[in-house]
Specification:
3-stranded antiparallel sheet; 1 helix; 4-stranded antiparallel sheet; mainly beta; globular
Length: 147
Amino acid sequence: MNPITIALQRLLNGADLPSPAYATLGAAGMDVVSAEELTLEPGGRHAVATGFAMAIPDGFEVQVRPRSGLALKHGITCLNTPGTIDSDYRGEVKVILANLGSEPFVIKRGDRIAQLVPAPVQRAVFAEVASLDETDRGAGGFGSTGV
């Protein structure tokens, strides 16, 4: 699949930081770094600045996802994951991090904090109907298919 081009505007608070980038040839997500320093207390959350804005092409979004190493080792995750950055948003990209661990977590400027994954968006329309077709599952939800 051919890559899409996403325009990236470096902001003043991110002038010396690396652009989002793939760490390996097989990586699905681009690592993004923090443009600020802070300590995330246990149970705390913060919208961490990245120092850039972008223009995503129409028909695409960029998903914000946690980094597995931060999640496993420190309990640091992204809230609202995967977060969606819409194609018409032009403000600074911020990553909503939460500390689910038991210790304060220090984030330094330039630390990798999340991954960005571009994805196509399928638009939909709703058609209101009087009833829905039947399925084996029916209206069962929230654990209804498991034991």
